[in-house]
Specification:
The protein is 74% helix and 0% strand. It is built from seven helices and no strands. Its main location: membrane.
């Protein structure tokens, strides 16, 4: 039931932001995300007030699954309310997002899948942030180094000085 209530909060946040900022798509997504996962963002302030603030534990820098899912749900709700890209009724979109949240909550409890966005993040990083080129350069450098090493051993063994009789 917590996940269904989370979807309700995200939808209410997007709806409220749409009334206040009719053309502010980014603010709708931001307010929906904060309403959906407010505890993750309040932890930053709470840790700062206690004096245990660490830069590595900031929710914006390393978002957890509820934050990522709240961003995705808020984006879908904004597209549903403000554009014609989603032609399904709002109740069906709401139901689909509820099923998404409940399914991944159950899969994290039963199957151990804690973040289903990781494969998409890895693919995005590999394509757009240079991962493919780094891997290709590392692979080619490894093959060139191995070939040079084999060539060096052949020279040592070919002159007869390093052979053991």
């Amino acid at each position: 039931m917590k996940e269904v209530y989370r979807v309700k909060k995200i939808s209410d946040g997007v709806t409220h932001a749409a009334k206040v900022f009719p053309n502010g798509y980014l603010s709708m997504i931001l307010i929906g995300t904060i309403k959906g996962n407010g505890s993750g963002f309040l932890k930053i302030i709470e840790r700062l007030m206690r004096g245990v603030w660490t830069p590595a534990a900031v929710e914006v820098m390393q978002p957890t699954f509820p934050t990522k899912a709240s961003i995705a749900a808020a984006l879908i709700f904004v597209m549903d309310k403000k554009t014609d890209l989603i032609s399904a009724p709002h109740a069906l979109v709401y139901f689909g997002i509820c099923i998404f949240f409940v399914y991944f909550k159950l899969s994290s409890l039963l199957l151990g899948i804690h973040d289903p966005f990781v494969p998409f993040e890895n693919l995005f990083c590999a394509i757009f942030l240079g991962g493919i080129w780094d891997s290709l350069a590392h692979t080619l450098a490894g093959k060139k180094g191995a070939a040079a090493e084999k060539g060096g051993e052949a020279v040592k063994n070919g002159n007869g000085k390093n052979k053991k009789d």
